[in-house]
Amino acid sequence: MASVFRPFQRSYNYLFRTAHEKPVIFYSFVLGLIGPVMVAVVPPIREHYGYVPPPPIPASYPLPNRPRQPISGYEDE
């Protein structure tokens, strides 16, 4: 009987063995795969539960709506 072509069989065996022998490498691989998936999945879930992004932080200090008065005192005299 001819062998069946299984393209990911060696990868699966490696991950299975690594999960038992070197769990740090295995979990690093799993977290590395989950990260990009979360970028696509998490924002719609947050919006579904009512998350509203905060307003943007002001880039400048608001100036008062009045004429400016000259400064006097200390070294300005």
TrEMBL record:
<feature type="transmembrane region" description="Helical">
    <location>
        <begin position="24"/>
        <end position="45"/>
    </location>
</feature>
<keyword id="KW-1133">Transmembrane helix</keyword>
<feature type="region of interest" description="Disordered">
    <location>
        <begin position="55"/>
        <end position="77"/>
    </location>
</feature>
<keyword id="KW-0472">Membrane</keyword>
<dbReference type="InterPro" id="IPR039961">
    <property type="entry name" value="Nuo9.5"/>
</dbReference>
<feature type="compositionally biased region" description="Pro residues">
    <location>
        <begin position="55"/>
        <end position="67"/>
    </location>
</feature>
<protein>
    <recommendedName>
        <fullName>NADH-ubiquinone oxidoreductase 9.5 kDa subunit</fullName>
    </recommendedName>
</protein>
<keyword id="KW-0812">Transmembrane</keyword>
